[in-house]
Each structure stands twice: as structure tokens, then as C-alpha cells.
Amino acid sequence: MNNIMLRNKPKDWQVTKLGQLLEQRNEKVNDEDYPPLSVTSNGIVPQMEHVAKSNDRENRKRAAIGDFVINTRSDRRGASGLSDYDGSVSLISLVLRPRAGHRRFLHYLLKSIAFQEEFYRYGHGIVADLWTTGYSELKNIPVALPDDPVQNQIAEFLDHRCARIDLLIEKKRQLIALLKQKEHIAIDGSLTSSTGKGRQVLETGLPWIPKIPAHWKMRRAKYLFRNVARPPLNDDKIKTAFRDGQVTLRENRRTEGYTFAVKEVGYQHIQKGDLVIHTMDAFAGAIGVSDSDGKSTGEYAVCEAVSDSVNNYYYAQVLRCMAERNYIYVLCPSVRERAPRFRFSKFAPVRLPVPPRPEQDEIAEFLKGSRELRDKTYTSLSLLKQYRASLITEAVTGQMDIRQGVVNEITAKGLDRIVKALVP
Fold first, then answer.
1. C-alpha to C-alpha distances, 343 to 148, 223, 229, 301, 366, nearest whole angstrom
2. 47: which residues sit within 8 A by CB, 6+ positions away?
3. Domains and their CATH numbers in the chain
4. Could you report the per-residue pLDDT of 60-115, keeping only the tens digit for each?
5. CA atoms of 105 and 17, how far apart (whole Å)
């Protein structure tokens, strides 16, 4: 097996297997005695509100402070970290107790792209989307380690550099949150600003938008959109609808944490300008207009306007407004409490506001500037994450010898250059 973690190892680094460094903790607990934790790409955190929760609260694994936890599902590649909490995780997680090596160095080693690739390659499953890797496979993965003082140097180096990058990432996220807040205010204003005092209004009978200007109309969605299912093209790349409303190529936003299927089944072509709705995430706002051609799985509802009187950008914002006001839940019957599923057949009879096309265009254009800045910020955020991941991988695999004092200067200059290029 061509182990990419050993490909460029320094001659003085020693090869060992992970089973010599980490042992499995397989202690069954409940989430009442041990608070539930989430295993994310950002590490181990108290269980997040939006995640799907199991009803089996007695059947969980304990994760203690200082343990390494890895989500073994292939579609959550990169979801791992060193736990700062004593709690419980789902059974699909692998909990590891360190038995040798520098803990922070091992943390970065397990977060590296090189390890993620090897972890996946050592796994098993029927298809890529059902792939998993257990401790019996992980313990046999060979890794190269420097001596303890160098492990400590590398860990301290990465702690310092990653902290600086993480601060920049957090600033990007704050800017994105501010832009999203402004967009929500603008969307609400666009739907209600023409219904002020003294103006004629039309009662809709809908709880999420009770009144509209009198010169607007209400029409059922099936008279505005058609649900299309086009076969994918050979050069199509995978597209994703994100909860902030951007529909873009997956590689533009995030590549870590995803597994690409060996055999693609059920994909469909998406054209630039299509209204795209993530059927399992529509309730959370994963609705938008595609910024390019590509393809998606059948878990996306792809809609095209039935006439030139419909502006897809406007209606993407209308649907996101519906999601914000929890109206999408009405359209999403599901047996899963926290993951209602959108269906076009349920959407088709829903009545929607229909302003004259010039007003639709005006509202969409008003929101365009904020959306473009948000998209640029997401791009810079993605590049910072890629830079961070590359830095970690190079350091823990010996491609960057941090014992050479010049490396700190070179790395700092490289970060300064990338930061200067990324500031919108």
C-alpha cells in the first residue's frame, strides 16, 4: 500500500503503527450521566442543536478529556479532534486513548489530510457512501514520528500558526454573519415595504406573509416553476446548496469532510440560473440559484421558471424567507424530527407572491451586492482553511522541518501574503 504519510518522511523519523500510540476506549454510557458531544470538522464540542438526535440515549460511547475522537463515517471525513470535555458520543465515533507520543502532535497528525486519506483507504464497506474504518483497521496504519522534543516543537509551532489562522477565519465568519443579518432585513423589507400605512393591500391568508401590495398577485408554485430532472454531463462537477443560500461547486467552498462516490448513481444536471432546493436542508435555508453548471444527487429539487415573468433570484429569497419563518416545515413531512424533507409535489400547490417582473428584478438587484461580497468572503474562508490543512500536513509528515529557524519566517511571510490577498 502506498502510504502517503511515509512518502517523504525524514530519515531520522521512526515508523510505528497507530496501535502502539492509541488504544480504543469502548465504554458504553448514557447521555444523562455523560453529556452528549458532537464530533465536527472543528473538533469536539457540546452537542449542537441542529444535528439529528438518536432516541437511543442509553447506547453511547464515553469520551473523556484528552481522548481523540473520530467520526468514522466516510461522508464526515475530517470530523475529529482532541476532546476538552468528559461526555458521550454516538456509536459511529471512534474514541482513542493516547498510550505514547506527544498528545498535541498526535492531534495534528490525526487532523492532517494525509491521515484522513489513509484512514479512508484502510476502511471497508459496500459502497463509498457506506464506508467506515474501525479500530481494527486504524491500529495497523503506519505513521512516522520524530523524537519527543521535535514532536513538541512541531506541536507548539502549529498551535501558534493555527491560532493566528483561526483568528482570521473567525473574523471572516463574523463578517458573513453580519452580511446574512443585513440580507434577512432587506428580504423582509422587500416583502413588506410596499404595505405601509395608506397603501392598498391584499390579504393573503398566509401566516408567513399576511399582506402584500394590492397590485401584486398570488399564484401557486406549479404555475411559476417546473421540476426538472436532466441527465448529468460527462464533465459536470458536484454542486452543493449551502444553508446561507449559495449554490456553487463543492470545491469552491469545502472539500474536506466529503467522500466522492466510486460509482455515481442518481445524479442530475444543474444549469446556471436554476432554482435549487436541498430537499433535506430546505428548512434551514439551503435554497438558492446555481452560479454555474454542474450536477447533484437526487436529494436536490431542481426548478426552472415557466416563463420570463419569473426571476429565480427573487424567489430564492422568498423561499428562504419562508424557511426563516418556519413555513417550510409545513411542506416537509418526515419521520425524522430534525430533518424534514422537501418535496416539489408538496410545494406545487403553495401560493406565492408575484410582483411585476420589474419589481422582482429591483429586489433581486438590491440584494446582489451583499450576496457577491458574501460569496467572496466564503471563497477567502475556504482558502484559509486549505492553507491551514496544508500547513498541518506538511509539518506532521516531515515535509517542513521546523527546526530550521528560517521556516518560521518563510511561513509567516506566506501567511501574510495570503491574508493580504484574501481581505475583501
1. 56, 16, 14, 8, 30
2. 35, 36, 37, 38, 53
3. 12-145 (3.90.220.20), 173-377 (3.90.220.20)
4. 999 999 999 988 875 567 788 899 999 999 888 889 998 888 899 999 999 998 88
5. 15
